[in-house]
Amino acid sequence: MRKEFMRKEIAKKRARPALTLVEMLVAMIMVTIILSAAAVTMIYGQRSLDHEWEQVGIQRDASYAMLVMKQAIRGASQAQITGNGKGFKVYKDSQWIKFKYVPGARDIRYKVLGGSEEWEDYDDEDDEANTLINGIVEAAYFSIDPSTNSTVTISLYLKKGQFEAQVSSSVTMRNFVTGS
Q1: pTM of the full structure
Q2: How many domains does the chain fold into?
Q3: Mean pLDDT score, 8-37
């Protein structure tokens, strides 16, 4: 009797129902849909991240340019606007430092000049000029407050693809000499 009972138990275990072909196809389709949704989500997330880094990059470029120009202005004893507000130069440490917006190249460039050296007609291919911002400047304006002559205002508008950044700052020269 015990042997017969054991045979029935073994037969029950062997007689388990298996997956049919239709059930297997439905399961594979469901897995495919879930994996496709995960892949689309991952791709969308990566694109969003790339766009955010592009925006951060343009803001970083604007901040860096402002930092360099502000440092030059703060340490200067005098400043002059050049090119109808498209550039300025500051006198610092016995030399002029000139910043200039080059519309054709969409650049902000600067050059350290000797005491009397001029840089009015700037050649875009001047190897001695340093590029501060390259190829993304839509507009740049510089002005000096006429009431004090010691405060320089910088306004930049940068654009790269669909991303834009606008920055503006007024900086006072710490070493300003009255009557310069």
Answers
A1: 0.70
A2: 1
A3: 82
